[in-house]
Amino acid sequence: MVTESPVSSPLTTASTRRQGRVADRAGAGTTSPRRRPRNDLWLALVFIAPATVGFLLFLAWPTVRGIYLSFTTYNLLTPPVFTGLQNYVRLVQDSIFWHSMAVTVEYVLLNIGFQTVLALFIAVMMHRLTKSTFVRGIVLAPYLVSNVVAALIWLWILDTQLGIGNEVLSAIGVGRIPFLQSDVWGIPTIAFINVWRNVGYTALLIFAGLQALPEQVYEAGRIDGASEWKMFWRITVPLLRPILSLVLIITIIGSFQVFDTVAVTTQGGPANATNVVQNYIYNLAFGRFQFGYASAVSVALLVVLSVITFIQYRLSRSGESDLD
């Protein structure tokens, strides 16, 4: 049986077309015009304005002002007097400055060496054994203590006569050690205090980098029969190069700026054995009121840090990754 398709009449076709045109006009009337993309530039400027003002007032302007004062003689009581390169000539001939720079370099090497190795070990252990938030909180806890408080705590613990640390050493037969009163133990002890405080933060930075590494790379290493030690040196360390470079740059800059721990524990003594550059700058400016020469020493430290950071960035190829 064959079913014939209905044949539409001219009247039906015309009616259908009219209904379609009416529906199109109705739809066109209800459809809203496409909106232009919203310009959020002014909103963004409002949000970054406080940070920009703070940067200009507390970083940019003091830096420019300090560079200007480094070419003057200024004692805070009289207007600055321009003296050209006189402060920098004095800086080159200043034996105390070079001694403080050597002391600072010794501290930086100790601090970076112990802190980086220990932080890398803690980060790898957290990544391999546990990723507990509680453990991360314990690791980060010393970093939440201010430098002044941490220095005071260790000053009491390591006190030669009454410190519990020396009491323990005396009880086990080692004897009392003048950690912060000795020219031999002073800088290593200050480095130890700051490693204890900052190693957790550094470890968390490295731990974040470890979490970003693809697991497929380690699976391929296990299939090839690589041990954990080989995977650490052949996979983990090369892939962590950008993070490790960032950590080293931050640590170097922070280590060269060490001041509060020294000011609380040793004040630069004994016999300038712990007189780091920042402590020397502080004594020049607020002890002798030689703000012009103190500014010149600060500018010299700025130049040293800039050169070290640039060289390290270039040598470590921080902008590249082996994942590419």
Structure description:
By secondary structure, the protein is an all-alpha fold. The chain has helices at 10-30, 41-69, 86-92, 95-129, 133-140, 147-157, 164-171, 186-211, 215-223, 228-239, 241-256, 260-265, 277-287, 291-316, and strands at 72-73, 81-82. It has a two-stranded antiparallel ribbon with strand order 1-2. It starts with 9 loop residues before the first helix and ends in an 8-residue tail after the last helix. Mean pLDDT is 86; it is low at 1-14.
Key features?
mainly alpha; two-stranded antiparallel ribbon; disordered N terminus; 324 residues; single chain
Principal-axis shape equals globular
Strand content: under 5%
Largest beta-sheet details: 2 strands, antiparallel
Radius of gyration, CA atoms, in whole angstroms: 33 Å
Mean pLDDT: 86
Between the first and last Cα atoms, what is the distance in angstroms?
69 Å
Number of helices: 14
Low-confidence stretches: 1-14
SSE string, helices as H and strands as E:
HHEEHHHHHHHHHHHH
Q: Output the structural class.
A: mainly alpha
Determine the fraction of residues in helical runs and give it as a percent range: 55-70%
Give me the count of strands: 2
Going across the major beta sheet, what is the strand order?
Answer: 1-2
